[in-house]
Structure formats: structure tokens, C-alpha cells
Amino acid sequence: MLSKEKQKFVRSLWDKKTRIEEWLFLVEWEKSILELLKSSFEIKNLYITKKFEEKHSDVLKDTNYEISDSETIEKISISKSNNAWIAIVVSPKNDFLEIENEEFIVVLDTINDPGNLWTIIRICDWYGIKKIIASKETVELTNPKVVSSSMWSISRTNIFYTDLEKYFEKKSSKHDIFWAFLDWENIHKIDFEKHDWWFIVIWNESHGISKSIEKFVTKKITIPSFGQAESLNAWVATGIIIDNIFRTK
């Protein structure tokens, strides 16, 4: 049985401020826990039911964990439908990401909707994109919705949070920086094979373009519209742009 003190600490990690201060986050759901056990993430505490232990004894044999009852796990879980497992995990370091030759980098400018972030991460993982550069205003990787809905793509896609203006001051002279605008060059007509290194900046449509980094853009592109929709949200635009890039690579 988990002590009240431990239960209180787990629930405190529901809060963004505590997650940042403690440098810890929560992982739930069976698939995510099993992926976690195979990843390089450091598990601080793992709480599971006896039933879960019996079902997955093979993958748990080299793992430290504590047995709890399903009622307690349900009480401390963010998702009320989880009553079998929960892990406290050390947050990944915010390490600077070196850009290699012939690499495509997604840049996120103030993407503060968790739904946009986890979907973009899964899109990047699908296409084998390993690196994302994000503004400090972008929602944190360890947001519970991002962790649970990314289907553990967060373990295969690295994110570096930084001041984008300072970052591009150092990188802009060496790399093409694409940004999706309205009424600019049609993405269907761009030959991406001519570009060995590049960034694609995805911005938040409700906040608009950050003027501090717009000045670094070298290529303004657009996804042509054939209907009446006013705009596309961030993750939809990301998927379309990436797919078009890989069609020509």
C-alpha cells in the first residue's frame, strides 16, 4: 500500500510547476509503461498492481517496483480509467541538438496546445525525424496529455527548448529556413532535393508569427487551398509539409 505521503507526491506531479521543479513526470497506460521499460528514460518509481506484475513478469524482472492496489493507483492517476500502473520518470535533459548534414528539423514557435504538440511528435516519429527545436513558450514535453497521447513517440524524438531568436542568429547563415505563409511559393512546386539542411518553422495561428524570428526566414512557402477553409491548424500543416518534403527526397 502506498503511503499517504507518496500518494500526495504523485498527485503533485499533475501540476506543471511541480513537474518542472522536481524534474519529474508521470507515465500511465499499459502501452506507455511497456515502452518506457524498453527505453532509456530513468524510472524513479513504478507502482503496479499484482495483476499487472503477473501479466508482465518477463519485462519486469530487472525493474524495481512497488505493488499497490487498483483503488490507490486510480486515485493518484491523472486518467481516472487507469487503475493498474503508474510511473514517476525523470524528465529528459534539455540538451542542445547538433544539426547534421542532410537533416530536416521541425521548429515550433509557441505551440502551446498539447494536442498540437503530441500530434506533431507522432508525425515526426512516423517520418523518422529525430529532432525538434521549440521555443520556450511551447508546451512542455512532459505535459500529461502529450505523454499519454504521443504513444511513446517522445522516446524517439528529441526536443530542445530554447530562445529561437538567439538560436537562429547562430544558424541562419548556414541553413535554409522555411516558413508557411499564405499566398507565397506553392509547396507542391518546390524541389527539396536541392536543400541539404533546412528548418521548417511551425507557428501558432492564434498568436501569429513571432516577428523576432520572421527576419531569419529564407523561404516563404504556402500550402495551396482549393476550398473555403480560412486556415489549417499547426499539426495538420506540419503533416502536409513533411509529406511533401519526403515525396521529393
Short characterization:
The protein folds into 2 domains: 4-90, 2-Layer Sandwich (60s Ribosomal Protein L30, Chain: A), CATH 3.30.1330; 104-248, SPOUT methyltransferase, trefoil knot domain (Alpha/beta knot).
Short descriptors:
single chain; 249 residues; alpha/beta; 60s Ribosomal Protein L30, Chain: A; Alpha/beta knot; 2 domains; six-stranded parallel beta sheet; four-stranded mixed beta sheet; 10 strands; 35% helix
Word description of this protein:
The protein is α/β, with parallel strands linked by helices and 249 residues long. The chain folds into 2 domains: 4-90, 2-Layer Sandwich (60s Ribosomal Protein L30, Chain: A), CATH 3.30.1330; 104-248, SPOUT methyltransferase, trefoil knot domain (Alpha/beta knot). 35% of the residues lie in helices and 22% in strands. It has helices at 4-12, 16-22, 30-38, 50-55, 57-60, 70-76, 114-126, 144-149, 164-171, 211-214, 234-248; strands at 24-27, 43-48, 66-67, 85-90, 104-109, 131-135, 158-162, 176-186, 198-203, 219-222. The strands form 2 sheets. The chain has a 6-stranded parallel beta sheet with strand order 7-6-5-9-8-10. A 4-stranded mixed beta sheet has the order 1-4-2-3. Strand 5, helix 7 and strand 6 (131-135) form a beta-alpha-beta unit. Helix 7 runs parallel beside helix 11. The radius of gyration is 20 Å and the shape is elongated. The model has no long low-confidence stretch (mean pLDDT 89).
